[in-house]
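Weekly modeling sync, notes
Attendees: S.R. (lead), two postdocs, one rotation student

Agenda item 3: backlog of single-chain predictions. S.R. asked that every request posted to the team notebook include the full sequence so nobody has to chase files. The rotation student volunteered to paste the first one in as an example of the format we agreed on. Action items at the bottom.

Example entry:
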Amino acid sequence: MRVFEVKDNEEKSRITLEIMQALPEWFSPPEDIRRKAVIHREFPFFAAEEAGRPVGFATLKIHNQWTADIYTIGVLQEFHRHGVGHLLVESCIEWCRKHGYVYLTVKTLDESAHYAPYDGTRAFYQREGFLPLEVFTNFWDEENPCLFLVKDLRL
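Predicted structure, as returned to the notebook:
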């Protein structure tokens, strides 16, 4: 398994489309996936590959001089629970520390939405040391309450 920062914008878009389209339980609708494939070009982008095949990625959105956000992270389902997500988060943390960020945040679907695929997502973030701060009931929309989590990178 190799995790590396991707600089080429076309490669960022290609990997985004490939991974997100393979994960319809987590990412939809198609127009949102296409929009993110363009947006990700502007963000620090990390890819995980196995035998030359992309199996996951993570992007960082910079909010201010102290805080970066894992804007999107996706790992092919057959690679869940194989350490790929952990390696991607570690790459994000390393990049943030190198660039002087103090906090790393992430947003995900809150448990009050009762959508099973995200149970594992929330557990993953908590295993990675993220702590829940607040639930925003109208961040995305009423059916998709947003759980906001943070990790202090000084610890």
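Discussion: group reviewed the output briefly. Residues 84-98 form the longest helix (15 residues).
Action items: rotation student to repeat for the remaining queue; S.R. to check formatting next week.
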